[in-house]
């Protein structure tokens, strides 16, 4: 197997580096430009646009843009990096289906695993960036943040770094319960930046965010639960780093797994303890 340590691309760069003889690290490296949107800012992103009069026009309505304080803006930028990296970096391990790596000091292949990392570097302009995100400060609380994956862009709000509770009717077995799900919007949207679709495929209907509890609690549904499926961006990227040299090499594949336990981030509002049996 031929190994390329570094790869550059339009959406992100990446590096595959040996940690020891049995472990590699695959790091997705993003250069991100966060564009500060003020009431006087003019921009056009399809159906979402601002003409500099303090009003943002969007598919879902009109929104009043408020000013950013300088300290508030600096805190947002710092927290953006922290929140996204904490959620997505070092959460997955890729396991090979067979031995594939030959350490320099050894002629025997071994089944080295790959740890999945993610790093974000903030840059000053869109021309330097892989991804450009406009950050708005609307007075209203119902703006729907989104990512335009094809154009490597998106629009987020000042509230998107904080976890929020959302109540949704959710199927549990043959019943429907009112479930409260905790999700941080920026982490869901960054999943789209990584190329992940909603839990039930492309689209923005309620069904696409899940129907059952296991679907709803998914990070690409209404919750924050990471699953092996979310390791796919790293698995796809790995193909650019590991170049098969033999037929044996071409049969090596990797499967993702979640690296550590996770918190349960939902509450069943219709749950009732079972009745205690009469003594």
Write up this protein.
With 279 residues, the chain is an alpha+beta fold. It has one domain (2-268). The protein is built from five helices and 18 strands. Strands 2, 3, 4, 9, 10, 11, 12, 13 and 17 form a nine-stranded mixed beta sheet that branches. Strands 5-6-7-8 form a four-stranded antiparallel beta sheet, with no helix packed on it. Strands 14-15-18 form a three-stranded antiparallel beta sheet. The longest helix is centred in the N-terminal third of the chain and has 19 residues, at 70-88. It is globular, with a radius of gyration of 22 Å.
SSE topology sketch:
Elements: E1 2-3, E2 6-7, E3 13-20, E4 23-36, E5 42-45, E6 48-51, E7 55-58, E8 61-64, H1 70-88, E9 92-96, E10 113-122, E11 131-136, E12 146-148, E13 153-157, E14 163-172, E15 175-184, H2 185-193, H3 213-216, H4 232-238, E16 242-243, H5 247-250, E17 254-258, E18 266-268
Parallel strand pairs: 4-10, 4-11, 11-13
Antiparallel strand pairs: 1-16, 2-3, 3-4, 5-6, 6-7, 7-8, 9-10, 9-17, 12-13, 14-15, 15-18
Number of strands: 18
Count the domains: 1
- State the secondary-structure class: alpha+beta
The amount of beta strand, in percent, is 35-45%
Distance between the termini: 68 Å
Portion of residues in helices? 10-25%
Radius of gyration, Cα only, in angstroms?
22 Å
Low-pLDDT stretches: none
Strand-and-helix sequence, N→C?
A: EEEEEEEEHEEEEEEEHHHEHEE
What's the mean pLDDT score? Answer: 95
- Identify the overall geometry: globular
């Amino acid at each position: 197997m031929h190994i390329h340590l570094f790869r550059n691309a339009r959406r992100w760069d990446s590096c595959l580096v040996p940690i020891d003889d049995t472990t590699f690290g695959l790091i997705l490296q993003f250069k991100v430009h966060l564009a500060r949107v003020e009431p006087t800012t003019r921009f056009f992103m399809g159906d979402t646009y601002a003409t500099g009069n303090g009003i943002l026009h969007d598919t879902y309505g009109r929104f009043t843009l408020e000013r950013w304080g300088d300290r508030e803006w600096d805190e947002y930028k710092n927290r953006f990096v922290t929140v996204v990296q904490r959620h997505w970096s070092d959460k997955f391990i890729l396991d090979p289906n067979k031995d594939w790596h030959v350490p320099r000091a050894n002629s025997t292949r071994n089944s080295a695993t790959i740890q999945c990392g993610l790093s974000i570097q903030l840059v000053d302009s869109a021309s330097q960036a892989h991804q450009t995100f406009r950050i708005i400060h609307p007075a209203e609380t119902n703006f729907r943040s989104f990512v335009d994956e094809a154009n490597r862009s998106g629009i987020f709000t000042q509230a998107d770094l904080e976890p929020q509770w959302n109540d949704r009717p959710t199927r549990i077995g043959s019943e429907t319960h009112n479930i409260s799900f905790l999700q941080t919007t920026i982490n869901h949207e960054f999943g789209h930046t990584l190329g992940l679709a909603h839990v039930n495929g492309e689209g923005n209907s309620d069904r696409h965010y899940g129907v059952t509890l296991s679907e709803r609690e998914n990070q690409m549904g209404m919750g924050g639960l990471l699953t092996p499926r979310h390791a796919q961006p790293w698995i796809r990227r790995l193909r650019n780093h590991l170049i098969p040299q033999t037929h044996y090499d071409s049969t090596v594949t990797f499967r993702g797994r979640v690296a550590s336990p996770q918190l349960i981030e939902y509450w069943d509002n219709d749950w009732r303890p079972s009745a205690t049996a009469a003594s």
